[in-house]
Write a structure and sequence with these properties.
Elements (H helix, E strand, L loop, with lengths): L10 H19 L5 H31 L1
Length: 66
């Protein structure tokens, strides 16, 4: 279930995205690569958006059946 009506992320996904964002920033400050954390945060976001889009398509299909 999304955290808000305007956001596709669940509370867990929000926490994971924030964690990876913080870790990426910490690594950048040390002069290290943050690609791994950035990629993971993007994957979480893409997965959440796809899930919500799928739900919307299914809801639309149910509305059309009525």
């Amino acid at each position: 279930m999304p955290a808000t009506n305007h956001d596709p992320h669940t509370w867990r996904e929000i926490a994971q995205t924030v964690y990876h964002g913080v870790r990426a920033e910490q690594r950048r400050k040390k002069g290290k690569s943050a690609t791994r954390h950035e990629k993971r945060a993007e994957e979480i976001t893409a997965k959440a958006q796809e899930r919500e889009a799928r739900k919307a398509r299914e809801a639309e299909a149910r509305r059309k059946k009525k």
